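Q: Entry one of two.
A:
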Amino acid sequence: MLEITGNIWDLHEKGEWIGIPTNGNINKDGLAVMGRGVALQAAQRFPNLREDFGGALHSNGNVPNIFIDYRIITLPVKYNWWEKADLVLIERTAIKVYKMIVNNIYCFPSEHLQSKIYTVRLGCGNGGRAWEEVKPILEKYWINDRFIIVNLI
């Protein structure tokens, strides 16, 4: 795992894949709740993402989901939007994403197998966690330079 400083959306505009910290909530209209932080920014950039992600949450549950058309992977850090980020969920997410990317267990699109995943400090913004709590969890699983944490400028 590497850490850099920058703007995650600048990287996305250059063609990189980004991971969006998310929760598992769907509103009454079937749309994913993406009301703050990078998730809100993603929803504003991609008007259909809330609907697509809501459908994935309904079908798959609160697990990482790949959205090829958006070059986005959702990274669950909370069960409910109003809660503090859950360290056990962050660990499960880190394991699943590692398998998705490195071992291709979850059918990550073959043409993107060499992609890097850029994300922010999971659970540390609106999730209310300290980086010192989360970093050791991610470092345990994200052991190569394909996982990059972007410290916002």
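Q: Entry two of two.
A:
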Amino acid sequence: MTESLSKSGLVTKKGFAHAKLIIVIVTLGVFATLAVRASPGIMRTAYKSAIERDLYDFVKAEDLYFLFYGQYFGTTGDYIQQGDQLSGGLVTPKMPFVPSRDVRVEVTSTKEGDPKHFMVKVSHAKLDIACEYDFATRQKMEREN
């Protein structure tokens, strides 16, 4: 540290001690390490939140479609997926639903003549689990993808 006289004649200290600088660098390093180690868990939680929110939004869109047309939209194997662009057989202006990026919503089961027998699976490209929803029982299940 260097000392100098101020205009008032008082001695002032300028500069940063090397020890303080090292402490700041080490502290920042520890925080950076903790952030890097925590990020996979944070991203997993974010992907899971995305599929759960998209499932909720899709169920609401299907319920609205059912209200107007008396049946759910889509058959087994139909899907809607958001990647570089929106794709799949469930893309229609009649049902305004757009999933989050890298999320796929797929109809997994339908039964002719039974409009309540309708199941969907929502998955994320970077997640090893998926959410399934049964419209007949109104139950959500989490499964390995």
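A: Comment on entry two: The mean pLDDT is 85. Helices lie at 18-69.
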